[in-house]
Design goal:
Elements: E1 8-19, E2 22-34, E3 38-42, H1 49-56, E4 65-67, E5 70-73, E6 76-77, H2 83-89, E7 94-97, H3 101-104, H4 111-123, H5 127-140, H6 146-150, H7 159-171, E8 177-181, H8 189-206, E9 209-214, H9 217-223, E10 226-231, E11 234-240, H10 250-257, E12 285-286
Parallel strand pairs: 3-9, 3-10, 7-8, 8-9, 11-12
Antiparallel strand pairs: 1-2, 1-4, 1-5, 5-6, 10-11
Helix pairs in contact: 4-5, 5-7, 7-8
Bound molecules: adenosine-5'-triphosphate (ATP).
C-alpha cells in the first residue's frame, strides 16, 4: 500500500476499562494503516476487534478510555476533532455497520424514512430527492420490492433484509471507509454470502476502503485483501490474505490448523495450545 493511498492511520492505540479488579486493557498499543482496500481484522472473542473499530470513530463509552498517538483519516488527526466535527465524520466519511440491525434501526420509524432522513441530514437534499436516493440504494442492495420495504417497519423485514437495509443506509452518504463489525454473523450461510457479495460489489464500485471485523478466519481470508490478526488486545500478525498459509505467528498457525479440512472431513480437529507469552509478544510479522 503506497503512502498516498492511505485513508486511515492508527498509531499506538490503547483502550482501557477501569474495573473493580483493576484496569482491563482491551487494546494494547496497536498500529495499522488502511488504504482503498479490504482489510479483515480477525481474532477470538475478547481480542479487542470491536473496540478497535469503535475507537476509529471515537465511540468508546465511558468508563472505557481510548488513547492513541494518532488516528488520522485522509491526513487529518481525528483526535484533534471536536465532537461536532466527529459527528460529521461518522456515517458521512466513515460508516459503521454493526452485527445486529435490530439494535441499529429505529423500531418505530419506517425503513424508508430512516434511510432518507439519514441522507437528508448529510446532503441537505429535498424529501423527494432523498426518497428517490433511498429507493435507488434499496435496489442496489438487491431488495426486490423497494417501495414495499421502504414503507415497512424494521420488525416487518427478515434479518438478512435488515442487514442489507443497514448497508444501504451506511452507504448512502458515499463514505470513503466502511467499518463492518461482524455484519453477517447473525445470518444463515446463504444469506451471509449474498450480503457479502453485495457489500463487496459496492466497495469495489465506489473505491471505498473496508475494515471487516470477524472471528471467522476462513471468511475473512476469502473476502479481504489483507488480514490483521489480533490476540489479547495486540496485533500479532498482518499479512496478505493470499499469503495467510505462510503466517508465522503460533496463534495464527494454530487458527489455520484448527480449520476443518474439506479433503479429509474425518480428520481430528487441532486444539489451540495457548502460550501465555503470545499475549506479550510484539507484532511479530507485518508484510504489506
Ligand atoms: N465495559 C467493559 N468493562 C470492562 N471490560 C470491557 C468492557 N467492554 C469491553 N471490555 C473488554 O474489552 C475486551 C475486548 O472487547 P471487544 O468487544 O473489542 O472484543 P472482540 O474481539 O470484538 O470480541 P467479540 O467478537 O466477542 O465482540 C473484552 O475482552 C473485555 O474484557
Amino acid at each position: 500500500m503506497s503512502e498516498q493511498e492511505t485513508l486511515l492511520r492508527v498509531e499506538d492505540l490503547w483502550v482501557r476499562f477501569p474495573t473493580r479488579n483493576g484496569i482491563v486493557e482491551a487494546v494494547r498499543g496497536i498500529s495499522f494503516a488502511v488504504g482503498r482496500e479490504r482489510v479483515g481484522i480477525v481474532g477470538e472473542s475478547g481480542s479487542g476487534k470491536s473496540m478497535t473499530g469503535r475507537s476509529i470513530l471515537r465511540l468508546i463509552r465511558p468508563p472505557g478510555q481510548m488513547t492513541a498517538k494518532e488516528i488520522s483519516f485522509k491526513g487529518d488527526n481525528l483526535l484533534d476533532y471536536s465532537e461536532r466535527q466527529m459527528r460529521d465524520v461518522r456515517g458521512h466519511k466513515i460508516s459503521m455497520v454493526m452485527q445486529d440491525p435490530k439494535f441499529s434501526l429505529n423500531p418505530v420509524m419506517t425503513v424508508g424514512k430512516q434511510i432518507s432522513e439519514a441522507y437528508r441530514l448529510h446532503s441537505g437534499a429535498s424529501r423527494g430527492d432523498a426518497k428517490r436516493k433511498a429507493l435507488e440504494m434499496l435496489e442496489a442492495v438487491q431488495i426486490r420490492e423497494p417501495e414495499r420495504v421502504y414503507n415497512s417497519y424494521p420488525h416487518e423485514v427478515s434479518g438478512g433484509m435488515g442487514q442489507r437495509i443497514m448497508i444501504a443506509m451506511m452507504l448512502i452518504p458515499d463514505p470513503d471507509l466502511l467499518i463492518a463489525d461482524e455484519p453477517t454473523s447473525a445470518l444463515d450461510v446463504t444469506v451471509q454470502m449474498r450480503v457479502l457479495a453485495i457489500m463487496d460489489k459496492l466497495v469495489k464500485d465506489r473505491g471505498m476502503g473496508l475494515i471487516f471485523i470477524s472471528h471467522d478466519l476462513q471468511l475473512v481470508s476469502s473476502f479481504c485483501d489483507r488480514v490483521i490478526i489480533m490476540y489479547g488486545g495486540k496485533i500479532v500478525e498482518t499479512c496478505k490474505a493470499s499469503e495467510l498459509h505462510n503466517a508465522k505467528h503460533p496463534y495464527t498457525r494454530g487458527l489455520l490448523a484448527a480449520l476443518p479440512q474439506i479433503d479429509d472431513p474425518k480428520a481430528k480437529l487441532a486444539v489451540l495450545d495457548r502460550d501465555p507469552v503470545w499475549r506479550d509478544q510484539e507484532s511479530v510479522v507485518a508484510y504489506d
